[in-house]
Amino acid sequence: MTSATAARRAASAAVLAALLATGCGGGGGKPSGEPRSTSAARHPAARAPSGQATSGTFNSSDIGWIQLMIAMDDQAVLLLDLVPGHSSDAGVEKWAKPVATAYRAELARLRKLLARAGVPDTNPHEGHDMPGMVTEDELHTIERAKGTAFDALFLAAMREHLDQAAKVAHSERSAGADPATRKLAVSVERTSHTWRARLP
């Protein structure tokens, strides 16, 4: 590895660590969110020391990114599932259906990677109000909306989610160590930009 490559990886690792920490220490995230929950298990996950391999080719950036994306995607799927019966925009419904299907496939890939790393499928982001994370409070608010009001709230939440997903994926593909995890990060970054550009 060249010194320039090493420097880029170190910088990306620092960016990813900062993004993972945002909202996790009580000081970041969205200003008015409430504690959230996901369909993931409710216990803190084991984390590898910074820069140390957890299992095989995984390092702490890989594990942190996988866990963050599972937490983010779990909530995004719940949001996407609200579209039928709430949206009044055929374009929103047409956009949301394949995205929800793709997210479920992405979650399966993320959980397979987590299992291969030997890390329990738990949620270290329980109760955290983070950029790109759709909180339970937000879900309840959006669920109560109908028609154009729902569409506006839905699109704003998905826009934030996709922007943040692309950002952390960009850092992971540089800072991560596991080839399969980095490959998925490349896919997540690309598809996040694509879906963001195609938002109605």
TrEMBL record:
InterPro entries: DUF305_CopM-like, Ferritin-like
Keywords: Signal
Gene3D superfamilies, alphabetized: 1.20.1260.10
Biased composition (Low complexity): 35-50
Range of residues in the leader sequence: 1-17
Region feature Disordered, mapped onto this chain: 26-56, 170-200
Pfam families linked to this entry: DUF305
Domain DUF305: 62-191
PANTHER family membership: SLL0788 PROTEIN
Protein name: DUF305 domain-containing protein
Provenance organism: Streptomyces antioxidans
Lineage: Bacteria, Bacillati, Actinomycetota, Actinomycetes, Kitasatosporales
